[in-house]
Amino acid sequence: MSSSASSAEQAERILAGLDENQACAAQVLSGPVRIIAGAGSGKTRTITRRIAYACASGAWNPDATLAVTYTNKAAAEMKLRLARMGVHDVHASTFHSAAYSQLRRAWRILSHFESPEIADPRDLALHAHAAMAHTLQLSDYTDSEVRDVLQELSWMKVNLLGYEDYERIVGSLGHELPLDLEPRQMLDVARAFETEKRRHNVIDFDDCLLLLAHLYENYEDLAEDFRQFMRHITIDEYQDVSPLQHLVLTRWLGKNRDICVVGDPAQTIYSYAGATSYYLLNFAEEFGPVSHDVQLNTDYRSSGNIVEYANAVLAGSPVASSAYITLTSPHDAGPRVHLAKFASDGEEMRGIASRILWHHARGTALRDVAILTRTRMRARDLARACREAGLAVNLRLDGENEVLRGAVSGSDGGVDVGAPSEEAGQDGAITISTIHAAKGLEWPLVFIPDCHEGNIPFSMEQMMTRSDEDEDIEEERRIFYVAVTRGIQQVYLCVAQYPFEGGRGVQRTVSRFVRQASNAVRRAHRGKS
Ligand SMILES: Nc1ncnc2c1ncn2[C@@H]1O[C@H](COP(=O)(O)OP(=O)(O)OP(=O)(O)O)[C@@H](O)[C@H]1O
After folding, report:
1. Which domains are seen in the chain, by residue range?
2. Per-residue pLDDT at 188
3. Which pLDDT score, from 0 to 100, does residue 403 have?
4. Residue 291: its pLDDT value, please?
5. Cβ distance 327 to 39 under 8 Å?
6. Which residues contact 425 (CB under 8 A, 6 or more apart)?
7. Residue 361 and residue 389: Cα distance in Å, rounded?
8. Ligand 1 in contact with 22 (CB < 6 A)?
9. Is the pLDDT of residue 417 over 50?
10. What distance in Å separates the CA atoms of residue 417 and residue 399, rounded to the nearest whole number?
11. What is the mean pLDDT of residues 476-481?
12. Which residue in 40, 196, 237, 264 has the most C-beta neighbors within 10 A?
């Protein structure tokens, strides 16, 4: 058989198993392509096959192909899947690791010295602490106060805010500062923080992206050299890029328009870290005319009732029709999404554990079960309660502020994946995870505890009084949507009426998202019968 015949066969094999829309997207190989892909609609499958098809058919040189993923784990997974399809040498990495390796090379070429190292998160916290102690005249800050300040320092950079604009922008956005600081005090901390990093000859991840963008702007020859390795760029999770990442992307592209972006505006859940779906939604205006613009809306993951419920969660949004897509399910309806009510938090935790044991006794493997929490604290509490009930547990916590930082450090996007549970048996362990750390994952049986106002949507009092139009509420709706769409067969929503036993504490109200969606689903079913 001739080699061109065998590579044509290989290319055909790669396309097998894609639906019509997915296959269409996989075969448009030049010019700007946008794929809006709902939850479970196979976006990872589609972009991986598209890259494999392009390389196997000879349209792209793998060594000139860059795929940007949100975590190091996703990059490794993509390389593995490509290798299984016989495609090697594609560059797959996070924004940060691609940028850092380019920065190191550029630094060596331009200065003959090594670039500054990226500081370890613990050292960064020490530098922030020193900057705070120096400018704010106090020295006993808690870890979480330092973390909040670091997040604010990062927020300034990922949003590309210059010192001169910061005060005005903070005022006009009503953006709250950590520790009740005045904007001017925050700027003093920011300057002192830069001094601290310089003194230790380190940078952070935001600096890395800023420096690289600067090099591309000022060293055109170098930029052109680097672009040879990025003739074809694919960006996954494009709904979560920050203005700073977007700036780097535009520098990587230069005049090139062989760019494919994929994302879901309904899954933007990292706004606090600068993520915005603006670039995904405005892709055609920015890079168009586009060669292909497609929506993938078949959710291959979840049963019909879960998909119906997830759609109802989004339908309650004032921006639903313009921003979000409606999913369809190719599967049977399956069990309804059920709301389980408990008297107290303690009873809720024990109730969830016993429901899991009930499913386990009927054949559900523990590795097929997840409890997804809004906060890290509740994930820890539930892990304790489930272990007490005799369940093996794997705890996944996302490091919030480290979401972007972790992308280079190898900690998988800041997700702290606890060591596999020692007590895990043959059928593994249940997963207890924050919703943020569960993004991109799936389980047959999913529990979402604490579905009450104040937790879903999460609030520090003030959010309760805001209107539904508020962007913070919208982000909380998307977080809940991400949680619901992790379920394959069955999703349980849980709520405790009071925090403590015996009706003590402030009585809870069921989450507005649950009330809206459950009512809409009930109405729809009544209409059908
Ligand atoms: N054409 C298809 N036919 C059958 N199953 C598919 C198809 N495309 C994707 N799937 C399956 O659907 C599930 C979801 O796919 P994938 O993880 O690629 O989705 P995703 O869009 O990245 O999801 P999310 O954004 O919700 O994390 C996977 O189990 C995948 O194997």
Report:
1. 117-206 (1.10.10), 304-528 (3.40.50.300)
2. 97
3. 33
4. 97
5. yes
6. 366, 392
7. 14
8. yes
9. no
10. 10
11. 97
12. 264
